[in-house]
Amino acid sequence: MKKDHNATENKQKTAMPSTADLINMISGAYTSPLWDELRYYAGSLDTLRKLQTVIVALQECGKSAEAFDLIIALHDLTDLDVPEAVAGLEPFPDGIKMFVDEFIADTKDIMCDFEAEEAVSEGI
Q1: Is 111 exposed, middle or buried (0-12, 13-18, 19+ CB in 10 A)?
Q2: What tens digit of pLDDT does each residue of 10-64 get?
Q3: How many folded domains does the chain comprise?
Q4: Domain of 87?
């Protein structure tokens, strides 16, 4: 009985994550540790919200590269190494835009978690 090599090859192709999926995974893995460190250094959610607002504003103005540079600078400020997977996006403008979009989405979730934690600690 002959194996269908095309079927095996098609399965392998469909099993490969898309670029968007990979960038989503990268953002998901590295966004939270950065915000956790920033929270430690900032001391208040208000400061974190201001940083979030700047990143969102840059992205909305079409300045993905600048938003990405800010994210890299935030790593430097917190003394966190920039993950290779993130730094590797630098030569790819479309990848940077996708990463910043995902970073913003992940950040919204993280901020909700921070706010919930703060509300619990304040007894609200």
Answers
A1: middle
A2: 555 567 889 899 999 999 999 999 999 999 999 899 999 999 999 999 999 999 9
A3: 1
A4: 22-121
